[in-house]
Automatic annotation (TrEMBL):
Pfam families: Acyl-CoA_dh_1, Acyl-CoA_dh_N. It is an enzyme of class 1 (oxidoreductase). It comes from the Bacteria. Gene3D superfamilies: Acyl-CoA dehydrogenase/oxidase, N-terminal domain (1.10.540.10), Butyryl-CoA Dehydrogenase, subunit A, domain 2 (2.40.110.10), Butyryl-CoA Dehydrogenase, subunit A, domain 3 (1.20.140.10). Keywords: FAD, Flavoprotein, Oxidoreductase. It comes from Streptomyces lateritius. This is Acyl-CoA dehydrogenase family protein. InterPro entries: Acyl-CoA_Oxase/DH_mid-dom_sf, AcylCo_DH-like_C, AcylCo_DH/oxidase_C, AcylCoA_DH/ox_N, AcylCoA_DH/ox_N_sf, AcylCoA_DH/oxidase_NM_dom_sf.
């Protein structure tokens, strides 16, 4: 595989880094997460409207740019470097691909151009806080107990006089409190003939209650979503093979999402490492820079190797449709290790609330809680690989 990036990817990286350097520094990030939306809406409109990030991987016929996973991974790596809070992950990575894959032509034509322009933000609502399992990252999502399995709990869908009504709740919904559109995973058919369906719900639908949750990582907002006989619209035309189609589409989205999350983590790890190298080069102890001590050099060199190895896995998976779970496991471990060393090598200041080191550490910890842990990602990905070889 040629590891060199294309001219288009270099331009995406350069343009986005310039924008985020100006408008998403540590002070701007803290201000953005304190807003009701949890992100800078002005910056989001620049990212989505001016730069076209929301529609980067969407087909041109729906107003998208028509790029591939590698270009989207470059964008996610840059937003990860800045820890920029935005609806990019929830909208463009988790929800839009499902609408494109399963939606009817009418639904795609109505929703995807609005998503591509940045005018419509979306969130994927999965019951029980089991997003990683629903996407097939840490286990086989065919065991749909993650969505309630037709029993009490989860989100139940029923048809009343031709209308689809939802009852239940979902937690840990990324950007769920502010999204203009929710895509809700629900169960239909009761316990005996239970099946998983995806239902579109407007953000202003009657009976819908959304509460922003306090989170460890304030740069990645989460919400609790309650649905009390909320009317929605079934995604797609509901053919006989809909259950297999829904679970397959969720797993396919999960494979791509794993690569994008890994790119985000690699970007954050790279930025934390850059800050640490810069600090140890200027901080003096015993009359010389801390970074000149051999022990510190070795620690920084080990971190660099780990980050670059994870980055190679990310772009290999993006370009060659490789195992996203393995790339995500490596990236999460790299971010966790670098974030911990960032705090240690910054000394006393690294432990303070005022320093941004804790933001990287919280991102590393929160991502493993939501999408991992790394050992389960690696175990499930390896099981899939060995299964394919045996077959």
């Amino acid at each position: 595989m040629d590891a060199a990036s294309t001219a288009e990817q270099d331009e995406i990286r350069r343009t986005l880094r310039e924008l985020l350097t100006k408008h998403s520094g540590p002070a701007e990030v803290r201000a953005a997460v304190a807003t009701p939306e949890g992100y800078d809406t002005g910056l989001w409109h620049r990212m989505s409207g001016t730069l076209g990030l929301a529609g980067l991987a969407l087909p041109e016929e729906y107003g998208g740019v028509g790029c591939g996973p590698a270009e989207l991974a470059v964008a996610l790596e840059e937003t990860g470097r800045a820890l920029a809070p935005s609806p990019l992950l929830a909208t463009a990575v988790l929800t839009a691909p499902l609408i494109a894959a399963l939606g009817s032509e009418r639904q795609r034509a109505a929703l995807l151009p609005r998503i591509a322009s940045g005018g419509l933000t979306c969130a994927l609502a999965v019951p029980g806080g089991s997003l990683a399992l629903a996407l097939g990252l840490t286990g086989d999502n065919a065991d749909d107990s993650w969505a309630g399995g037709g029993r009490a709990g989860g989100v139940q869908a029923r048809t009343v006089e031709g209308r689809t009504l939802l009852y239940g709740e979902a937690t840990q919904v990324l950007d769920g409190h502010s999204a203009g559109l929710l895509l809700v995973a629900a169960h239909a058919g009761g316990f005996a003939r239970s099946r998983t369906v995806l239902v579109l719900v407007r953000g202003d639908a009657a009976g819908l209650a959304r509460v922003r949750l306090p989170t460890l990582d304030a740069t990645r907002t989460q919400a609790a979503v309650q649905l009390r006989d909320v009317e929605g619209e079934l995604l797609g035309e509901d053919p006989p093979n809909a259950p297999a189609g829904v679970l397959g589409a969720l797993a396919a989205t999960g494979r791509t999402a794993a690569v994008m999350l890994a790119a985000e983590a690699v970007g954050a790890a790279g930025a934390a490492l850059d800050r640490t190298v810069e600090y140890t080069g200027t901080r003096e102890q015993f009359g010389r820079p801390v970074g000149s001590f051999q022990a510190v050099k070795h620690r920084l060199a080990d971190l660099y190797v780990q980050v670059e190895a994870a980055r190679s896995l990310v772009y290999c998976a993006a370009r060659e449709a490789g195992p996203g779970g393995l790339a995500l496991a490596a990236a999460l471990e790299a971010l966790r290790t670098v974030a911990g060393e960032t705090i240690q090598l910054h000394g006393g200041i690294g432990f303070t609330w005022e320093h941004e080191a804790h933001l990287y550490f919280k991102r590393a910890t929160a991502d493993e809680l939501i999408f991992g842990p790394a050992r389960r990602l690696r175990a499930h990905a390896a099981a899939g690989l060995f299964g394919e070889v045996a077959a």
